[in-house]
Amino acid sequence: MKRSIRTRRSRALCPAAFYTAIFGLSLLALAACDTAVRVDAAIAQNPNLIGSVYIPAIEHILAGFVVLTGGVLLIDYVQKTGAEST
To answer: How far apart (Å, rounded) are the C-alpha atoms in residues 27 and 24?
Structure first.
């Protein structure tokens, strides 16, 4: 009877993906702070702008987070499958 040997995959990110995630998250945090300051200034001038300024600003930050997450997962996948094939 042949016994199958399963390799255990690491759940941690590879170093390239980890540093990309750290750098990207710090940039997203900086963008969120910048957006909060700009939205506060815009709403102080005209309180009726909250729907037209605040919601698109949050959408852009969340879209950046989705793109960053996809990129980090793609980098991690390519690094791990490349390491397994060699």
So the answer is: 5
Closest CA to 57 of 38, 76, 80: 38
Residues 43 and 18: their CA atoms lie apart, in Å, by: 37
pLDDT digits (tens, 9 = 90+) for 6-60: 666 667 889 999 999 999 999 999 999 998 898 888 888 888 877 777 788 889 9
User: In whole angstroms, what is the distance from residue 69 CA to residue 15 CA?
Assistant: 15
Q: CB-side exposure of 43: number of CA atoms within 13 Å? A: 13
d(CA 39, CA 50): 8
